[in-house]
Design a protein that fits this description.
Layout: H1 6-23, H2 39-49, H3 54-96, H4 103-123, H5 129-171, H6 191-198
Length: 199
């Protein structure tokens, strides 16, 4: 029998020796030498040991993908929280500067207020007196903030209307008949002057 390599010859000899030892105890052909196993043959041996069906491979791949998806979702959630924090800080800085918030920020603030007020309502069923006090304080603070915002907006609108009216009068766009400076209104008699003369 011819062998392609010394390794295959050593493996065949080891197998025959093992067979003889099992069948005929106490007999050995040759003392067993340590056979060097190459990396490739070790890998092939491991692959044979761990042969898996297509279904097992599919399950493992599915588990690996699920784990990767969880990690990606965690990272995305962390990024989303960071973005929300940054956006909140920008809006907060605008509020502190008393600058008018852009349309997008106003929508975001309304959405945030609605979300937080719903969360407060959900927690309103708690029977703890300390939490009830905190909820009441937060509600008062929110109401005060809304009233303050409404009052400021109302004042700005009134100021803008008054300024626009005064500008129209100064430019001459608005005039009132009969109110000519230095002349009496049309249609009035001089009766009031006659009464003064009689006194």
């Amino acid at each position: 029998m011819s062998f392609n390599s010394a390794t295959s010859k050593a493996k065949a000899r080891a197998t025959v020796t093992k067979l003889f030892e099992d069948v005929l105890p106490g007999t050995t052909l040759l003392p067993l030498k340590k056979v060097k196993v190459t990396d490739a043959s070790a890998f092939a041996l491991e692959a044979r040991k761990h042969r898996q069906s297509k279904e097992e491979v599919r399950k493992k791949n599915k588990l690996v993908r699920a784990r990767q998806n969880r990690e990606i979702n965690k990272r995305l959630e962390k990024d989303k929280k960071f973005q929300k924090l940054v956006r909140y800080n920008v809006i907060k800085s605008h509020k502190n500067g008393q600058a008018a918030a852009p349309e997008g920020e106003q929508k975001y603030l309304k959405k945030l207020i609605k979300k937080n007020s719903n969360a407060l309502r959900r927690f309103a069923d708690v029977n703890d007196p300390e939490i009830q006090e905190e909820i009441a304080e937060l509600q008062k603070e929110i109401i005060n903030m809304k009233n303050e915002k409404f009052d400021r907006a109302k004042d700005r609108k009134l100021d803008a209307k008054l300024l626009a009216f005064n500008e129209k009068i100064k430019s001459g766009l608005l005039t009132y008949p009969g109110l000519t400076p230095g002349l009496a209104p049309v249609g009035l008699d001089d009766e009031s002057d006659e009464e003064e003369d009689d006194d």
